[in-house]
Amino acid sequence: MKKNIKWFMPLVAVFFLSACASHVTPFQYYTLKPVVEVKVSNSTKASIGVAPVKIPGWMDRASLAVNNGGYEIIRYDIQRWGEPLQDAVTRTLTQNLSTLFPWSDVQSGPWLRSQAPDVAVNVVINNLSWSDNVLELDARLTLLKKQVRIQSSSIKLNRTLPKGSSPEQLVEGISYLLADLTQRVQKNIIAQQ
To answer: Pfam families from the xrefs (predicted)?
Structure first.
């Protein structure tokens, strides 16, 4: 009888594991896209640098997460970022600025002090909230010229999303908010010339 139980238990375990595996939902991966509307500046800077964007710790996760406008964080279970969010935001801002300043050398940092760009853009995202179909980005923007701060400002941008938006529409909304932020950066850079 004990011999039969030795063979029976592993078969039962395999049966249960295969049943569980058939119900696993695969992850969905998302990335941000540069979607800035082309309003090319005739203004040129020899070089523009985008420092690695700082994001809140609760956003620095593999899964998509937004603040509900209050104290709660909404986290999606199977919807995930395809790359670290800090890298995605930095990359997107850099690509957007490259589109807006096609005659400038636009690169993301960090860089050596001796290789500092003419103008550096430092962005800190304070909050990303989604409440009543409004997606809001709260950020702090600092411009540096040869590593000396020349301007610093708080920026709040928002986009209205369709009612009942999907996670993909949420990610698209974030991409458009970053495009709006990039256009604000463009105006600030031009104003400093």
So the answer is: ABC_trans_aux
Using CA atoms, how far apart are residues 48 and 189, in angstroms rounded to an integer? Answer: 9
Q: Are 116 and 49 in contact (CB under 8 A)?
A: yes
Please give the DSSP secondary-structure letter assigned to residue 54.
B
111 within 8 A of 49, measured Cβ to Cβ: yes
Q: What is the DSSP letter of 118?
A: S
Whole-angstrom Cα Rg for the chain: 23
| CATH code of the domain occupying 26-191 | 3.40.50.10610
* Token pair belonging to 81: 């970022």
Our CA dihedral for 138, 43, 50, 172, rounded to 10 degrees, sits at: 50
CA angle 40, 46, 48 (to 5 degrees): 70
pTM of the model: 0.83
Predicted confidence (pLDDT) per residue in 3-39, tens digit: 556 656 666 666 666 655 556 678 999 999 998 877 6
Q: Indicate the domain borders of the chain.
A: 26-191
Crossing angle, helix 85-100 and helix 167-191, to 10 degrees? 50
pLDDT in tens, 77-96: 899 999 999 999 999 999 99
